[in-house]
């Protein structure tokens, strides 16, 4: 009787080329937009997905200041940060974040959907968020990533 050896094949990280995608965030709902971006960054859209290494693609987000929130989230959604000192909790609502740091709205939403470890930090480095429609990544020939709005 033959003994067959079945081994799981793992693709080499270096062998696979990373694609570049561009997403226009204008009039896109923040949650639906960020879930699609997180899927592409993680590499879950590929057949060669493996949860323990970075085989995702690079994503460029333009018009980050035109993202949409539903309901009363512009006034009720809070972005918290803590200095580490007693009484050091600071909070801003989404309107204040849009005025001060419009890119941070998209960045924080996507970062929260990535793993909370070294891999997640490396994956977050493949995200490039810009306000306005200009970006410096024209040489990479990014493909348009369409987000299905429901």
Describe this structure in words.
The chain has a single domain (20-144), classed as Ribosomal Protein L13p, Chain: A, CATH 3.90.1180.10. 27% of the residues lie in helices and 17% in strands. The protein has helices at 30-42, 73-76, 94-100, 102-111, 118-124, and strands at 20-24, 58-62, 78-82, 89-93, 127-129, 143-144. α1 packs across α4 (102-111) and α3 (94-100) crosses α4 (102-111). The mean pLDDT is 91.
Concise account of the structure shown:
The chain is an alpha/beta fold and 150 residues long. 27% of the residues lie in helices and 17% in strands. It has a 4-stranded parallel sheet with strand order 5-2-1-6, covered by helices on one side. A two-stranded antiparallel sheet has the order 3-4.
What secondary-structure arrangement, pairings included, does this model have?
Elements: E1 20-24, H1 30-42, E2 58-62, H2 73-76, E3 78-82, E4 89-93, H3 94-100, H4 102-111, H5 118-124, E5 127-129, E6 143-144
């Amino acid at each position: 009787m033959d003994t067959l050896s079945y081994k799981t094949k793992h693709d080499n990280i270096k062998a696979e080329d990373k694609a570049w995608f561009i997403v226009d965030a204008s009039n896109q709902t923040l949650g639906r937009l960020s879930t699609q971006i997180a899927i592409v960054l993680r590499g879950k859209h590929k057949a060669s997905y493996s949860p323990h290494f970075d085989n995702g693609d690079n994503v460029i987000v333009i018009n980050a200041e035109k993202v949409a929130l539903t309901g009363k989230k512009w006034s009720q959604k809070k972005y918290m940060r803590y200095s580490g000192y007693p009484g050091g909790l600071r909070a801003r609502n989404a309107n204040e974040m849009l005025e001060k740091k419009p890119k941070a709205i998209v960045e924080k939403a996507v970062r929260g959907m990535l793993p909370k470890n070294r891999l997640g930090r490396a994956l977050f480095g493949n995200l490039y968020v810009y306000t306005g429609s200009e970006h410096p990544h024209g040489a990479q020939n990014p493909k348009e990533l369409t987000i299905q709005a429901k």
